[in-house]
């Protein structure tokens, strides 16, 4: 079949690779350039982990890990750095208990570390008395931009065609499916058998029914320089980490030194200010960065607090933080990753490919149906 993929980020590039490798005629349409920094899939690092307080996501990650391994083998490059990871909070935190329950249910090995045990193993990090951590050795980080580029390159090697700076304006259903796009001031029409829309923060332009269910927010992160004991922050000596109670209404999280950007990366997983991705202020806000610096002073005293780099990105959120996945009239849509979706993109791409081909996905997708927002 001839299949158009609209939006070539993490999920779109994965879907393109799966379909092209299966022998389909794949057209990849990207409104910006490949690996642009305006959406949600750009950057050197995204956490990958099995530690979810939600059993379904823990089960889905069990399916995603082999797909990432397969991608690395096919691409012939390192895309996944296995540093180990900790998910921590106060003793008795319900999310810690839920993570342990999900790991036990899936027979996933883990360690439950006291604050003293954690700090001895990871001397760059300070847990407080009365806190504990779930350590899971399979955690680490994905080189996000490299993943997008690798999957796109492999899709093209399998025969897919990438068109950059091509903005899709409409989809017509008369006599089949036609994608109407604009490139260099010219109108283009692409007649296809199926369409997969993975346009991130811009998806509601093409799937208006999703607009009430999605909110795009501005997120910010920073790399802080290391003042001393740099070896303590290297992968293997320092884990990816999530603080289940780091800030009111959200979580702090971070990474070891990734060797590609100076310093140690910090971010806050909470809903930022709602924005229009077409016309937003992409400047980093000093107050947001100061909150990260303050947190670092308390938890990682070997950092200097000096900002080596800082940047903004986007979340496309659903009210319940679950994905939105569906298919209707030959059009598949995947969205609403809510800031925790990149680790799933290789699997979401496969699910989207299966839906486009009329195959039954391995997971029950009813929880991700947009119909759950109908009453709202």
Task: Describe the protein's architecture and organization.
The chain is α+β, with helices and mostly antiparallel strands. It has two domains: 2-43 and 145-211 and 320-373, FAD/NAD(P)-binding domain, CATH 3.50.50; 82-142 and 215-317, D-Amino Acid Oxidase, subunit A, domain 2 (D-Amino Acid Oxidase, Chain A, domain 2). 25% of the residues lie in helices and 31% in strands. The protein has an eight-stranded mixed sheet. A six-stranded mixed sheet has the order 9-2-1-13-20-19, covered by helices on one side. Strand 11 (177-183) and strand 12 (186-192) form a beta hairpin. Helix 1 packs parallel to helix 5 and helix 1 (10-21) packs across helix 7 (345-357). The longest helix has 21 residues, at 55-75. The chain starts with a strand and ends in a 19-residue tail after the last helix. The mean pLDDT is 95.
Task: Summarize the entry for a quick read.
The chain has 376 residues and is α+β, with helices and mostly antiparallel strands.
Q: Could you tell me how far the N terminus lies from the C terminus, measured between alpha carbons in angstroms?
A: 36 Å
Overall CATH architecture of the largest domain: 2-Layer Sandwich
The CATH class of the largest domain, by name, is: Alpha Beta
**CATH H-level name of the largest domain... which superfamily?**
D-Amino Acid Oxidase, subunit A, domain 2
Q: Uncertain runs with pLDDT below 50, 5 residues or more?
A: none
Helical amount: 10-25%
SS strand fraction: 25-35%
Count of DSSP-assigned helices:
7
Largest sheet: 8 strands, mixed
The coarse overall form would be globular
Strand order of the largest sheet: 6-7-5-15-16-17-14-18
Indicate how many domains the architecture comprises.
Answer: 2
**What's the count of strands?**
20
Radius of gyration: 21 Å
Task: Give the H and E element order.
Answer: EHEEHEEHEHEEHEEEEEEEEEHEEEH
